[in-house]
Amino acid sequence: MGCSASLPERSSNQLGRGNSENGGGQDAKNLRVKLVLLGDSGVGKSCIVLRFVRGQFDPTSKVTVGASFLSQTIALQDSTTVKFEIWDTAGQERYASLAPLYYRGAAVAVVVYDITSLESFNKAQYWVKELQKHGSSDIVLALVGNKADLHEQREVPIQDGIEYAEKNGMFFIETSAKTADNINELFEEIAKRLPRPSTN
Amino acid sequence: MAGFCFSLPHNVEPMRDSYGFALRPQHAQSYRQYASIYKEEEGERADKWRRFLEQTVKSSQSCSSEGKLEEISKAKDSDIKEETSSGSLSEGNDFSIRKSCEGTEIEEETSAERVSEGRDLSLEKSCEGTKVEGETGAELVSEGNDLSGRKSFKGTEIGEQTNLERQREADAETKEGKEGTVPARVSEGNDSIGKKSVSDGSTASSSEKEVHYLEERKARKVQTWGEIRPSLAAVEKLMRNHVKKAKKIEVEQTNGKYDNLPSIEESEHLEVVSEDIVGEKVCTKEMLDNSINDAREGNALEDNDSPEFHSHLKELETLVQGGVPKDLRGEVWQAFVGVKTRRVESYYEDLLAQESDSGERKEQDDSSGALGKWRKQIEKDISRTFPGHPALDENGRNSLRRLLIAYARHNPSVGYCQAMNFFAGLLLLLMPEENAFWALVGIIDDYFEGYYTEQMVESQVDQLVFEELLRERFPKLVNHLDYLGVQVAWITGPWFLSIFVNMIPWESVLRVWDVLLFEGNRVMLFRTALALMDLYGPALVTTKDAGDATTLLQSLAGSTFDSSQLVFTACVSFLAVSEARLEELREKHRPSVLVVVEERSKKGRIWKDSKGLASKLHSFKHDPGSLVEEMKTNEGDGMENAGDKSQLKSHSSNLDELLHSLNVDSEVDSLPDLQEQVVWLKVELCRMLEEKRSTIIRAEELETALMEMVKQDNRRELSARVEQLEREVAELQEALADKKLQETAMLQVLIRVEQEQKVTEDARRRAEQDLAAQKYVVHMLQEKYDKAMASINEMEKRVLMAESMLEATLQYESGQSKALSPRGDRIPSPRVEIPPPKSRLLNFGLGWRERNKGKPNNEEERRESQCNERSESRTL
């Protein structure tokens, strides 16, 4: 049953990936990756993206309905460029039913939680499981504890994040969109971990 | 409510539009450009609407009782005055009317208007002003109920008042007696509205009256209901058909309430019914009235103004497509959604009261339940709804919170869904709180049924439908997007879910909402999205990758400032997209969505990973206890108050709900049983078949896309080839042109050469002629020369002869002289004199001959000829 259930999923994944690879001029020097941000409502997904793409922080940002898109290109030291096509999804639980639309075919998934909310950390674990089940098999997963500037209100010990990420083969980092701490590092690290297309 | 009024443009900070919404910096420029256009359009449509309303009011007079004609037109006049006073809110208007009409007569006038806009034409005639007075009074007072004051009020006065109001509809006479008390309340209520809109109870402007009616001030906190201005009665009437339909559904469901229909309307109506036994009667009465009305409308409307009615509706549609004037919008929208028809007396306050009750007691154990979850989410989202909007101050946020929580309580199958915060916020900007609540109820329960529920089924279905429509209308665009790997739903999903709020500029959002609310369904969503694709498709097909395409579409949509173009494109170009067609497509796509949803929720139940259903079950399990508890405490109160039956009744409805939940529970408990597995396998099979089918379809799509690509490729190759050939041709042509040039040059040279040749030929011929002439001359000269020579020879011979003769003579003479020497002196002298001429002549002849020997012929000839001539002439 599980097998039969996952079969069509996989095929649709491949379709999705096939499509996304169709579209781009993928070469070894200029990568184009689809990245999706998932996580509980209000953990700061949109803020992370806005900080990364526009370098801004708006403490009174709007609720994301459905999803929103932004893209940003970064250059790495080995003179490759990576264009991130970022889908920032809505956080409310019921929007999870629309999430597959966005994470299907994504090369990177960034699961965000709020270090001041244990609940959001639990939610993050739900997302990790969901992605392991339904995401692409070679998806790069990152676990991000946001709002690191609010360390006095911390509910999730950094060790918990590290351990959970390690157990699931994820990359872990704590960030603060407010202070811009580790935001660029997050994306640079992701870029480094991307599987490079064979050069031919 | 006071916080929620349009801030005037000049109060607005630079980066906000005239509605007070934040403007993206990159759009500031284009907004400024369009602001003047908006203003102009606004002026035009204000005129059009005014004319339309005057006209419809006139025609509606014909169907209302004759006696009121004058009054209505009077009211109309005052209304027009109001309209000219810019931006004033409806409530303010009501207030000013009411305030100014202190006398009972004028109160009768306003109430008469109410009646004319009222639901029941037949009743209207029988119930004159006073009775309707009762209605407004009752309404206001009941609205005036405060959360805290409710319990004490409820049992006695309110219950009565509501009854009174209802009874009034059924029976005019009974009202008369109570009339005395009512007007006082009316004026109080009015005052409180007025103050609320002015200062929201701030001490500075509160008058003595406020001190007098301290109780009412409490009430003001929730005082939230405002009537639509009378002039829009016509619009409301026109829209009645739409709303009636919705109402009928509700009524049906109410009728079936004992059949345990698991609908939200049911619980709503149960509560309504439970309020009072009389209430129930009234409710049924109302139903009857409605059905009578329907029938009557069939007659009355068709008989009286059927052609007019339709022409008015048509005209209204055109007007709506042109946009609703700013200051009418709030009320017109209410008329469209049928706020007044939907409204159930004191329902909203009850919901809020429940909240404040439970807020105190259930805070802790409720937090894990669904309602607690929603409450938390709402709390998170309040400050993230139109952040920084001037109207969203403390009061505004409180209104928003109350509204959303009340809705969550009203319809637990939706509860709270992100996006609703924006809708509620928008509605609150345009109308009083309770009106906004009913409008939200209309939109979410009716227009967007199944959209914002836990599984969001209809939303997903609509995306599939939209994709099919798009594929139908713009195959090339979709092919291109397929090729780039862009799924349309990524972008349009958020458009639909937010009904374009935050997706396109505000003016456009409002214009789309105008039409959407008028039409009473989601057709406008599709039309608008198609129009956007129509407008921006050409730009989209030039994009090279998924990211660019998405960014472009997002930003282009965000800059759709030409709201009129958008709405007209939507309504004209995509007129064929009708509700019937959409429904057909929805039917087609729904099963596939349901299968996926089913699968998801199954997994959730089995693995308990997804908290979605698990938490639902949790809340079901939790609710019974808390509900029973609540019921007990309420029962205690109920003993004291006669009207608390309503509470009991409402709990009976909760119990019904509970029963459902228990049913669901048992269903879940028996999950691993065989039948379930069979069903599950069947579903699985269906799903796989569906998957297979969709995969096949997808494969076909891809194939066609591939074909298209190949074709495009071929085309590209061919075009490249053609280009190359063309280039060659061009080169050749150039060469040809060169050659031609050369040729002409050559020709010219040739011509010149020919001419020269001719010239030389001529010259030659002339020369030849000359030569011939000369030859002839030479010949002649030769002849002459020969002759001359011959004559010279002759002459020489003669000379020789003469010489020899001379010698002989000389010898003879010398011989003779020797012989005759003495005599010879005299004779020789004359003889010596004679010889010199002869020798001179001889010398000349010899010398000339010698001289001529070394010289050229010509010269010789010439000279010779000359000499000859001379000599000849001499010889001759």
Overall description:
The complex is a heterodimer of chains A (200) and B (876). Chain A has helices at 2-23, 45-54, 99-103, 118-134, 158-167, 183-193, and strands at residues 30-39, 67-75, 81-89, 108-114, 140-146, 171-174. Chain A is globular and about 45 Å long. Chain A has 6 helices and 6 strands, in the order αβαββαβαβαβα. Chain A is an alpha/beta fold and 200 residues long. Chain B has a domain at 674-875. In chain B, 79% of the residues lie in helices and 0% in strands. Chain B contains 37 helices and no strands. Chain B has helices at 28-63, 69-84, 90-100, 104-117, 121-126, 129-143, 150-170, 173-176, 181-199, 208-212, 214-220, 233-238, 240-255, 264-274, 277-321, 326-337, 339-342, 347-361, 363-366, 370-382, 394-410, 420-430, 433-447, 457-473, 475-484, 488-497, 506-519, 523-540, 546-558, 563-573, 579-607, 611-640, 645-669, 674-819, 828-833, 835-852, 857-875. In chain B, α25 (475-484) crosses α34 (674-819) and α28 crosses α29 (546-558). The longest helix of chain B is centred in the C-terminal third of the chain and has 146 residues, at 674-819. Classes of the chains: A alpha/beta (200), B mainly alpha (876). At the A-B interface, α1, β2, β3 and α4 of A face α20, α25, α26, α29 and α31 of B. Chain B: This is Rab-GAP TBC domain-containing protein. Chain B: Residues 708-798 form a coiled coil. Chain B: Keywords: Coiled coil.
Which structural traits does this protein have?
heterodimer; A: 200 residues; alpha/beta; Rossmann fold; 6-stranded mixed beta sheet; 23% strand; globular; disordered N terminus; B: 876 residues; mainly alpha; 79% helix; rod-shaped
Write the layout of secondary structure elements.
The complex is a heterodimer of chains A (200) and B (876).
Chain A: H1 2-23, E1 30-39, H2 45-54, E2 67-75, E3 81-89, H3 99-103, E4 108-114, H4 118-134, E5 140-146, H5 158-167, E6 171-174, H6 183-193
Parallel strand pairs in A: 1-3, 1-4, 4-5, 5-6
Antiparallel strand pairs in A: 2-3
Chain B: H1 28-63, H2 69-84, H3 90-100, H4 104-117, H5 121-126, H6 129-143, H7 150-170, H8 173-176, H9 181-199, H10 208-212, H11 214-220, H12 233-238, H13 240-255, H14 264-274, H15 277-321, H16 326-337, H17 339-342, H18 347-361, H19 363-366, H20 370-382, H21 394-410, H22 420-430, H23 433-447, H24 457-473, H25 475-484, H26 488-497, H27 506-519, H28 523-540, H29 546-558, H30 563-573, H31 579-607, H32 611-640, H33 645-669, H34 674-819, H35 828-833, H36 835-852, H37 857-875
